[in-house]
Design goal:
The complex is a heterodimer of chains A (161) and B (573).
Chain A (H helix, E strand, L loop, with lengths): L1 H7 L15 H4 L3 H4 L4 H8 L11 H11 L5 H12 L9 H12 L9 H15 L9 H9 L4 H4 L5
Chain B lengths: L1 H9 L2 H27 L3 H11 L1 H36 L4 E4 L25 H10 L16 E6 L2 E4 H36 L4 H7 L9 H29 L3 H45 L6 H29 L6 H31 L20 H37 L3 H6 L2 E2 L2 H21 L3 H23 E2 L8 H27 L19 H7 L3 H11 L1 H9 L1
Parallel strand pairs in B: 4-5
Antiparallel strand pairs in B: 1-2, 2-3
Classes of the chains: A mainly alpha (161), B mainly alpha (573).
Amino acid sequence: AYKRFSELLPKEMRENACSARVPKSDILMLPELRANPFQHRICHVFSTSETGDDSMSFEDFLDMLSVFSDSATSDIKSHYAFRIFDFDDDGTLDRKDLEQLVNCLTGQGEDSRLSSAEMEQLIQNILEESDIDKDGTINLSEFQHIVSRSPDFARCGGLQG
Amino acid sequence: RDFQQADTEHLSRWKRWKRTSSKSLKKALSEVKGLSSYLVLWRHDIHSIEGKFGTGIQSYFSFLRFLVLLNFIIFILMFSFITLPIIISKYGLFNNTIVNISPKYIEDNCTIYEPSGNKGLVYFYTYLQDLLSGTGILEVTSLFYGYYTIDAIWISTMRYNLPLAYLLATFAYLALSLLWIIKRSVEGFKQNLVHDADPFQSYCNKVFAGWDFCITDPNAARLKHRSLQCELQTDLQEEKLKQKIAERTMKEKLRIYSLRIFINIIVLAILSGFFYSIYRVTVFSQENSNVSIRNDTRTDSANLLVQYLPSMVITLANFIGPLIFSFLIRFEDYTPAFEIKMTLLRCVFLRLANIGVLLFSLWSQISDCGTDKCKPCGYNYKLYPCWESDVGQEMYKLMIFDFIVILAVPLFVDFPRMLLVTHCSCKLVQWFGLQEFGISDSVLEIIYGQTICWIGTFFAPLLPAIATIKYFVIFYIKKICLKHTRKPAARPIRASSSNFFFLLVLLIGLILAFIPVGVSIARIPSSKACGPFRNFNTSWEVIPDTIVTFPTGLQQVLFGMASEAFAVPFFMI
């Protein structure tokens, strides 16, 4: 993992790789993240940079890899997944978050988005299934509850090496 | 990870080694799995089809792949147990005993069988005719039943009982197909159950866990996006339709049910019309083609047409039937998934019953014992000295014709249509448009071909090889056809339940194939003029004969097994 991190750094800074920070644009060059529709969110969630530029240090990088590895528990995975899906960082998944989530899933082009009626119906269904306290948003515990019953989640959240 | 590292320091050395070795083992296993998935036939092709056209069409192609493998294995089975020993022995490596007719069958007429091989000067045209109709030169090859005349093969001192092997291999391939299909459908059934059991969970599952984080290739990502979109849209559409159905009033329900009954009556009438025409055509074809062949007047090109008449009528019925059914079903107002199932059911019945009617008319001809025609031998020996080969030939003709049609339709219908639509911009042509990929029709085509193969393999042991090649070629043709001449379905269709349904229909085809083979083995007397069962009354008699030669203890056991008390519970389990 250290090797891959240092590969991302420009040559001059390789000696102090442990303390350097890699800008976001370089992180996105990683093959695993390149095709991922949640790439920006992932960078944002794992970055501990104070300046808000979403750059990542080596520890952040390690954190990210460990959450996505096979040996992370589903608690940790669902916790981080919740933070990734929470587009406005308000601690709950409301309608706007869900809408952005679905748009990320279906693709970036204009014709690959669901129509607004379909989107409405879909979000309604999702909230019906997962919103236990009926407040119109999904909080962390509801999310973890629904994800623990989902057979696909454990499978999909794994990155290689 | 920090926690993990801190942990390992506390553990003893033994446990540390165990942990690292289990980690590396896991890694090795996953690498092997990754590599072995490359060996799966057509993995990449099917994956790309899935992304572009949805899982419904992908299930069709993986079904095709399954059939290719099944046919290949059946072919290997038949070849190694039946054909190979004969070929080896004919080349003189082993001693063999040709079947000698026991004096029971004094009547010589039964044993006269002269297939007209390549005697004398033969025109090239007749080669082609033989290839297409399985007569003449092809008739005496190992393709057909008549080639297998050897009774036993002696390998040093062991006796390889060929008739028994033939029969057992037949049972084996039927059993193998049955078990394999059941195994596959059980997997699909489990998925189906899980899918339906938690319908209220499915949306969350798709949205929160839908993205595969292992995708690294942008193309693959695009495919995944599209398939997710298709799936979500399908689900939403079905839900809307279900709501609409639930809101129907009583009057509407009454109207719809009476309409459905009426349409079903029409469907039955059409089906019986088809069956009757097939029966008449088969009888006509058999009478006319037989007469001309026996008199060796094969220069008549109309003869080929007459021979292929049953195949042509069946194909025509298979083509028109689904069109009519899909037209009628629009009036019945079902959900899209159920519409597909209903049309499929009707088309399945049509196709399989067509084959059944053909075989029935063949048998009525063979066992036509009206005016003492079959007194000495038990079957109509004048017209059919080697009736198994004839049945095999009919199956062969059906298969070849099916193949030709599947090749010809894309070539002569789809490609010109595509060219027209892309180059000619007049309104009429644009309205006509490209054709959608009809999954149900395509699946039925291949199930129909597979049923023919199963029935025909008893009579023509090398038929599975032809079927393997045929499906192999069909895969590529359909793929090219799909990419260039079809547009994606306007209604994305869900595949998981369709997959199980295809296998169910295939199973019905297989069980239907049991009937003709079973009847031929057990009921109809085997030909005395050709084939390995000449010494026996019916083909089934090989087995009781062999059992009699076993030690008495074993005989008791086998008879006990065959008795009802044991067999029924055994089959249940």
